[in-house]
From TrEMBL:
Matching Pfam families: A_deaminase
Catalytic-site annotation from UniProt: 208 (proton donor)
GO CC terms: cytosol; nucleus
Keyword Transmembrane annotated: no
Species: Brettanomyces naardenensis
Top-rank taxon, per record: Eukaryota
Name of the featured protein: Adenine deaminase
Family of this protein: Belongs to the metallo-dependent hydrolases superfamily. Adenosine and AMP deaminases family. Adenine deaminase type 2 subfamily.
SUPFAM superfamilies assigned to the protein according to its UniProt record, in alphabetical order: Metallo-dependent hydrolases (SSF51556)
One MF annotation (Gene Ontology) recorded for this entry: adenine deaminase activity
Amino-acid positions noted as binding Zn(2+) in the UniProt annotation, renumbered to this chain: 16, 18, 205, 286
HAMAP family for the chain: Adenine_deaminase
Important for catalytic activity, annotated site positions: 229
Cofactor remark: Binds 1 zinc ion per subunit.
């Protein structure tokens, strides 16, 4: 198909990928062996069994439970580097030119892993991708919203030196959504915005499993300039107008939404509505090893569902560059 050729070569930016979510079953078992990690008794025993399990998530929490077990095999700096490099190399072949990647420091520090080695490993892979793959890269630290905001605050404080060095470029908020509303983290974001370098950008997951009110409330109380997922925004026309007017980009993850049963089918992701209202959005993989597709697979799934024309794709690609947290000079190269 000519369109898949076109989408492969279209320069793509990814703004919503959790590096821990790029852990392929084969690497998971390899690292478990290398690090002598005992997986839980009820954990699938083979690559095939694990892949099968990934096709049957009930909801976000069902996925997160496995995602946190997966993390437990990551121990050394080399593990974090290997993980990120495998993702970057694969995505580069799919036409990825710029990535802003999330990670969950609390998921590692809380099981005794040194923060220095988590950041160090990820950074080595990202710097290598800039040199060898011609990519631009950014790193975004996320707070886990199922943990107490007081611990989020301590995490922000522990990150101050890394933000100052320019190694970390943004802050986000992820994990279980519905039971942990945005207001819980107002003071964390307030503290971060008042104490970290002014170049730091802010985003949060909202409107994935929760409704459009979590998107509205996140914008109101967190001081963020982007929304991760945000698909439920489409239920509120006033919010849609606000997103368009304020130029708030949604980082949409079609295959994730399908696997976590946020939608029954990719065709229910409100892509057409976003285009109609002029709400900027990008297309992303979220947790590609768990959700059955990397960046290009997500673009192709959207194309299969919506049959967009070339002009619409160029508009999407341009918005995705425009919404990136990079210099104007780099944007020009990416357009
Ligand atoms: C996540 Cl899909 C999703 N939603 C919320 N938190 C997450 N962490 C990793 N993937
Ligand atoms: Zn996510």
């Amino acid at each position: 198909l000519a369109t898949s050729e076109f989408l492969t070569h279209l320069p793509k930016c990814e703004h919503h990928v959790h590096l821990e979510g790029t852990l392929e079953p084969s690497l998971l078992f390899q690292l478990a062996h290398r690090n002598n990690i005992q997986l839980p008794d009820d954990f699938p025993k083979s690559v095939e069994a694990l892949q099968y399990r990934y096709q049957n998530f009930k909801d976000l929490q069902d996925f997160l439970n496995l995602y946190y077990v997966g993390m437990s095999v990551l121990i050394t700096e080399q593990d974090f580097e290997d993980l990120a490099w495998a993702y970057l190399e694969k995505s580069s072949k799919q036409g990825l030119k710029h990535v802003e990647a999330f990670f969950d420091p609390q998921g590692h520090v809380d099981r005794g892993i040194d923060l220095e080695l988590v950041i160090g490993g990820f950074r080595k892979a990202l710097v290598r991708a800039e040199k060898e793959l011609g990519m631009s890269t950014k790193l975004i630290m996320c707070l886990l919203r199922h943990l107490p905001p007081s611990e989020g605050l301590a995490t922000i404080k522990s990150f101050a030196p890394y933000y100052k060095k320019g190694w970390i470029h943004g802050m986000g908020l992820d994990s279980s959504e519905v039971e942990f509303p945005p207001e819980l983290f107002t003071s964390c974001y307030q503290y971060a915005r008042s104490s970290l370098p002014k170049e730091v950008h802010y985003t949060a997951h909202a409107g994935e499993e929760a409704g459009s009110d979590y998107v509205r409330r996140s914008l109101k109380c967190l001081g963020i300039s982007r929304i991760d997922h945000g698909v439920h925004s489409a239920d509120d026309p006033e919010l849609m107008k606000q997103l368009a007017e304020r130029d708030i980009m949604l980082t949409v993850c079609p295959l994730s939404n399908k696997r976590l049963q946020v939608v029954d089918d990719v065709s229910q992701v409100p892509i057409r509505k976003f285009l109609e209202y002029g709400v900027p959005f990008s297309i992303n993989s979220d947790d590609p090893a768990y959700f059955g597709g990397y960046i290009l697979d997500n673009y192709l799934a959207v194309q299969e569902a919506f049959k967009l024309n070339v002009d619409e794709w160029i508009k999407i690609a341009k918005n995705s560059v425009r919404g990136s947290w990079v210099s104007e000079k780099r944007k020009k190269d990416l357009y």
